[in-house]
Amino acid sequence: MDQDVGVIFEIINDTAQAYKGVIPADRWHDPYMSQDQLKQEIDAGVSFWGFEEDGHLVGVMGIQDKGEVTLIRHSYVRKQSRNRGIGTILLKFLESMTDKPILIGTWADATWAIAFYEKNGYRLVSTEEKTRLLRKFWTIPERQIDTSVVLAGDSKITLA
Known about the structure:
The protein has one domain: Aminopeptidase (3-Layer(aba) Sandwich). The protein has six helices and six strands. The chain has helices spanning about 1-15, 35-45, 85-95, 110-120, 125-135, 140-145, and strands at about 45-55, 55-65, 70-75, 100-105, 120-125, 150-155. Strand 1 (about 45-55) and strand 2 (about 55-65) form a beta hairpin. The N and C termini lie far apart (about 40 Å). The model has no long low-confidence stretch (mean pLDDT about 90).
């Protein structure tokens, strides 16, 4: 598992370079996610799944059961492997693992991530709904709540 954590750590931090200069500067860290933070996410119930090419892990995506909903967390595909459907394959696989409504949080300025999820059938929730959902299902600081969005699977969720 420690070897897997090391590769997941590498993929997350390699891919997260796309956020540098895009997300608010006060939310950027180098590394973007430390190994301790990654282990804390795993300890909190995020299960990572990966996609391999030629025996090498090139993409990861996490899933977390939060009781009444499932969260898709930490979706990353190596730079050289992007735009080949790997993210969609991982997302569809994780969707097949749950019958619960799925929520996805990402940075409001990560337009490429939002477009990816919208292309895969997710919709942005209202600002009020986003704030409520982030406070209920995620453990993140208020500043991150202010600068994030939440997307919901349109066919499985009603979040009044």
